[in-house]
Design a protein that fits this description.
Blueprint lengths: L5 H30 L3 H20 L3 H16 L3 H25 L1 H8 L7 H13 L2 H17 L4 H24 L3 H27 L12 H32 L4 H36 L3 H28 L1 H9 L6 H32 L5 H25 L2 H21 L11 H27 L10 H23 L4 H9 L3
Length: about 525
Amino acid sequence: MKPIRLVRGFLTVGAWTLASRAVGFIRDVLIASYLGSGPVAEAFLVAFSLPNTFRRFFAEGAFNTAFVPMFSKKLEANEDPLGFAEDALAGLGATVLLVSVISIIAMPVLVYAMASGFAGDERFGLAVQFGRITFPYILFMAGAALFSGVLNAGGRFIAAAGAPVLLNIFFIAAMLLARHYHWNMGLTLSWTTPITGFAQMGLVWLACVRMGMPIKLRWPRMTPDLKRLLTIAGPAVMAGGVVQLNLLVGRQVGSFFDGAIAWLNYADRLYQLPLGVVGIAIGVVLLPDISRRLKANDVVGGRYAYNRATEFSLMLTMPAAVALMVIPVPLISVLFKRGAFSATDVTNTAAVLAVYGAGLPAFVLQKVLQPLYFAREDTKTPFRFAWHSMIVNAGAAILLAPFIGFIAAALGTTLAGWSMVAQLWWGKHHMGEAATFDDRLLHRVPRLALASVLMGVALYGLRVLLADQLLMPGWRYLALAGLVTGGMLAYAIAAVVTGAIRMGDVRSSLGRQR
């Protein structure tokens, strides 16, 4: 089996994820412009979060955590990977279908669980209506997640990474049509949701066929491999449930403050740009790579993969985190302030964004550390750590909400992220040499931190210098572009001067067949 080119894989997935998040950002700008933070916006955002919650619970998160290492090892050893994938798809499909039927019937209960603050006003009825329309999305995305796992295990990242672009293109087109023909915007967004899921599933299935894996749906059956998969997936499913409980806590806190769910969502979408580009790229490429190296007893290669993933993630996320904390108001104001999105919305969304920014490196480092456990088919330990982090999140969000308001929801998320990283870091000590830092990483990390701080100082100065232009309608986009470009240039210069980045290492990593 052809080995995975690690850094090229990161860049491929990162580039397509960036394209998806950029188009997705345009989608969110349109939603903010057309709906602002009003009841229809909040109702749709909660409704859309429901199938996505279950998707992460059953498919991309928990299920693939167990499926990808097992499939990667079967692919490496040529032990009927196609049959295993078809059995897994049958079991996953049957489970998700049952969950979907129950959820659609019990939609009022789910909406109340997500946002009890909606009870007694128009948002509740709208969220129930929208939720029943959007929920079938999970059926298609469960299949898409499994097909994407197959592609990633085979080192084919483009189709799986590019599929989410379709979702955002469909949403943008639907909103423009709704605006032109005066359709109900909330219903238009809701009906578009399952259509996008079907399109994404079809795209990655066709890519699997081209890869030589024409996966077909068969009647579910309990095989030894499927039993093993369920044994491994069980703790991962429960850990995924803990992650969703963390999100639920944030939504519950936000639902008691008018507009807060929208503010949290818009800030989340913006910080998801760097998080998605780096975090998803790391998680998608690293897990199958480490799994296959374990199967081949390649300790040196496994250590190299872990260290380069850590270096790559910190090189991109530390400056992004500093930027989100230093210039949140210009970012939100220029990108979102129009139509129904007011000055108050800008101030509150920017505050949330700054808090999320402080947690950005933690959210990405989790993607680096978790594959060390998952590749060893250890899902129980991360599950235990996730429970501990949930307590941190709930405690911070609920206890601080009376004092700092909706910001407590974002702060709880950030504190829980760093708590999870600390536990994953401590728990890997028994894994031996493959999970240790090499000299290159130990040399680079403090220099990356210094370069990020220097960039932050430069950004602050540029923000003061361009303060007037950032408020002028005819100049604000150009001013923001100058602010961001100046920050990137400052970081590049600081990184080279401090020795945080060396172009020779970048070139060798791109060409090195690992």
